[in-house]
Amino acid sequence: MKLELRGITKRFGSLTANSNVSLVVNPGEIHCLLGENGAGKSTLMNILYGLITPDEGQILIDDEVVTIADPKDAVNHGIGMVHQHFMLIPVFSVADNVILGSEPVKPWPVIDYKAATTRLLELAKEYGFEIDDPNATVENLPIGAQQRVEILKALSHDASVLILDEPTAVLTPQETDAFMVILRSLKASGKSIIFITHKLREVLALADVITVMRLGEVVGVTTPAQTDERGLATMMVGRTVNFVVEKVPATPGDVVLEVRDLYVEDARGLTSVKNVSFEVRAGEILAVAGVQGNGQTELVEALTGMRHPSSGSIMLNDVNLAGQSVRHFLNAGVGHVPEDRQRYGLIPSLSISDNLVLDQLDDARFLRRFGRNLKAIKANGAKLRESFDIRSQSEEAPVGALSGGNQQKVVMARELSRELKILICSQPTRGLDVGSIEFMHRQIVDIRDSGVAVIIVSSELDEVVALGDRVAVLYDGEIQAIVPPTTSREEFGLLMAGAGAAKVTL
Amino acid sequence: MSTASREIVTLNNLRVVSRTRSLAYGITLMGMGLLEIVWYGSTDSKLHTVIQFGYNTATVWPVVSSIWKFILVFAGVGIIAAVVRVRAFPRLARIFATVRGTRTIALLIGAYLLIWPVLLWLGINHGGQLRTMSVDVAYTGYLFGCASIIVGGLTAWKRFDRSSSGILYGGLLVFLLGFLIWVARGSLDLQLTSILASAVAASTFLMFGSLSGTLCERSGVVNIAIEGQFMAGALSSIVFASAFHGTGISMTFALLFAGLFGAFFGWILAVMALRYQANQIIVGVVIVAFCTAMTQFLTTQVLDIHQNLDGSYGLPVWAIPGLSHIPLIGPILFDQNVLVFIGFAAVIIANFALFRTRWGLRVRSVGEKPIASETVGINVVHVRYGAVILGGFIAGVGGAGFTLGPGSPFTFGMTAGYGYIALAIMIFGRWRPYGALMASLLFGFTIALSANLNLYLTQLVIPQQFITALPYLITIAVVSGLVGRIRPPAADGVPFQRH
After folding, report:
1. Which H or E run includes B42?
2. What is the pTM (predicted TM-score) of this model?
């Protein structure tokens, strides 16, 4: 099936998410859609899948104009989508998830589970998937298996074009390899695939055709043979990108933070950080690597006082902070750039100046008689806005109106304006554009060089390797090993899948 | 292998949680046992309580020969053993796994086959005539107390993973039975069958209400307006029945009429919640307030003046041939008014519809993750409309249980907050129709109990109002005890908005 998008334009208020985008996907082709966050890839695909209605433009299937008003139309036209956040119902079984929306019934309206299971297993066999138990509950499956269920679901609707939205973001390197094998077999069976990503390595390994998007527009169409990582990155960002974070070797000083035998429970009462011990010295960066959801969130929450560990010690300059309040952690000199900046890092409706003093409101500088010293707060805001290059109308603009990169700068500026012993950054560059990423990395390296201990937690292996002086790999709540950043990708992959697992079954 | 290890860790964690729970349950049971020994056992040993097993079925129960008693006991033990050790019977295990509720039903049948001959041995029948049994209050206390302590001790020691809640509820029932025997000691007869039958009758509207709540919340809409739908159903059904009395129009139409009124308020909730995306709780509460005001207005301005519109018409009582003659449970379950049977049927149908049909799968999917349903072409809003209106219909029919059930005229405020208790029952029943049925029966029992205790406790210091408040207190205890342990539908009460 040949799919064509012609002159698609979509505006959200003053923002133009897609501007005159055209795209042709030929049968049996893996078409990579490359672009930074906010380049309009997801909007375009949601339009194709009928979740968003375009303002202008046409969708053509086999050279005929079609209207796709809702996902049902898309499914009927043979378009299947695997969403970045899986559209699976966690408490349903694999079979229920796959048949939902096109349930076989016999006699009406009773679901014919026997037919459903047979069809499911047939499909799985046809494309070489492994489905152990169609009655397994989806939430109990590992992420890789959930993804296969999502793909099977699309295939069971007879999709001939599959849209995959950042499918590898949640996978370990080994799972990614296995995933690529699946993609190639799908391609071999004549399916067209639209593969959305911002990972250049995967694009070059997989794509037949690459379309690069920037700021809602198509900036180029190319093939892996015609380009390389640098070329693609330049197209994607619009200028030459410096991939390497420039930093001098670390000069570690005294131990600042010493964590011993830390156990932390998550909100459901499950132990998600187990027996974690490490130390961080002044002037070095400890990077924590690992696939999302392996205890990083709980570890960071414990290290910043947001969650009390169930046992173990957190010694900051020989004072045990475990079980103390967040206030104690702040006073002891812990800086925190949280994973979810919108939720924990900022109050979107407050101004930049106010957000910049959120954790320093009892500082004498910002107090005046019975209230806040508004003048000092404003001056502080203006000063930091200047030095951190926070792009906004003024320091009184609400933080919620800023772009992600500028929001992150506000968080970083606030944390660095205190006297720090250790800075803990969780996913410091998630969802940021390349310019902001460079800026953040620069800041992190600078603060290290000024003699502060730094922990960064990131699920982007590239970032971990670029920044870390030592890398701790977290799997299932345990530190598998602490290794130098020069370790090979394969070895990282094995560690991220649990060190003992020599062979990873996807 | 990575998966496997993670799952084991999760399982271990869950096991730890449930083991702490069974420890707590076991200790509670032992405490209750101790209480029984000290409290009931200290009663004057000459005191007896006569338990009445008879009710309004006039037929004499069959005389059962000793051989048959043995056979019944063996059958009962066999069934219970098969359920407990189900792994030895693959076919049975498959049935239990696929058809929900069969396990519980099998256990109940087994228990019945066991209890009935034992009661016969204890002298309940007396040649097919007498249906009473005289028990010694003090000995009952010792017996129940010791049993409770032993079972509680086992639970605390062995830390059963799954069955501990069942054991606790069993222990509670035994404790209550002991309490009843103690309360009725001396001169009064304990009308056990009668109490249980009235418990089933009292649970009718709870059954409908909680079923309504289950349907709505499974689709992701909180129906807090059940109380209002009860009122609408109660009033409209009695007015219909009074107006058409003697014209040959069946009472069934009164039920239908009540259902339509309930469905109307369900529809209003659906429009507000789904089309205008108003806060579901507030809309629900407003509907209840409206119905309260409206019923008050209609009672004082219409029914008080035209009293022929507010008559006393009851639904026909059916004694199901055959089934109603089963000793003990026959009069309790199968000699009731029509609405009770409709309730049983509704629960069974709803359970099948929710878990086996296309419609049910879609309802559950929009209640869990509507965006996922939408991406496979399901119209979330339509499915929710259907579920909420149907839920309103069911609650409306249940409302008829207040008036047509006992055959009493409508009085203002007769729903007495049971619409809210129905929501608690829905939670207690874990958003499942069978669970709602079981929990309704339990709550119906407390309602019947509080009504009957008033009879026995006249000379006691406990104020009557406290006894009347018992069902509400149990509601609070049950709901707070369950917090965090059961999982509601993920999208429950969350408005759905397309892009």
Report:
1. none
2. 0.81
| Residues paired with B132 in a beta bridge | B52
In this structure, the answer to whether residues A73 and A96 fall within a common structural domain is yes
Phi, then psi, of A265 in degrees rounded to 5: -100, 145
A70 touches B: beta carbon within 8 Å: yes
Residue A323: Cβ-neighbour burial (10 angstroms; 0-12, 13-18, 19+): middle
Q: What is the largest CA-CA distance in chain B?
A: 77
Tell me which of A237, A265, A291 is where a domain ends. A237
What are φ and ψ of residue A81, in 5° steps?
Answer: -130, 135
Hey, is the C-beta of A142 within 8 angstroms of any chain B C-beta?
yes
Supply the DSSP string of A191-227, one letter for each residue: -EEEEEES-HHHHHHH-SEEEEEETTEEEEEE-GGG-
B361/A contact by beta carbon, under 8 A: yes
pLDDT band at B13, cuts 50/70/90? very low
Q: Is B1 at the interface with chain A, CB within 8 A?
A: yes
B230: left (phi over 0), alpha (psi -120 to 50) or beta: alpha
Whole-number Å distance between alpha carbons of A8 and B4: 46
Which CATH number fits the domain that encloses residue B373? Answer: 1.10.3470
Cα angle: A295, vertex A296, A299; to 5 degrees = 85
Residue A13 lies in a domain: yes
pLDDT digits (tens, 9 = 90+) for A274-330: 999 999 999 999 999 988 888 899 999 999 999 999 999 999 999 999 989 999 999
Best CA proximity match to B115, nearest among B202, B33, B51: B51
d(CA A47, CA A9): 10
Amino acid at B455: L
pLDDT digits (tens, 9 = 90+) for A342-364: 888 899 899 999 999 998 888 88
Q: Count the domains in chain B.
A: 3
**What distances in angstroms separate CA B448 from CA A150, B283, B463, B470, one per listed residue?**
51, 32, 17, 10
Do residues B183 and B456 touch, judged by C-beta distance below 8 A?
yes
Q: Within this chain, do residues A354 and A427 fall inside the same structural domain, yes or no? A: no
Residue B195 resides in a domain: no
- Residue the block writes with tokens 């006073």: A331
> Which of A371, A394, A418 is at the close of a domain?
A418
Task: Tell me the C-alpha distance between A61 and A3, whole Å.
Answer: 5
d(CA A287, CA A469): 7
Q: Would you give the distance in Å from CA A477 to the centre of its chain?
A: 19
Domain that holds residue B155: 1-63+125-190
Q: Tell me: ipTM over 0.90.
A: no
Q: How far is A94 from chain B (nearest CA, A)?
A: 13
Query: Do A211 and A251 fall into the same domain?
Result: no
Locate A493 and state its tokens. Answer: 């992959």
Give me the domain span that covers residue A394.
348-418
Which chain B residue's Cα is nearest to A107? B357
Same-domain check for residues A391 and A490: no
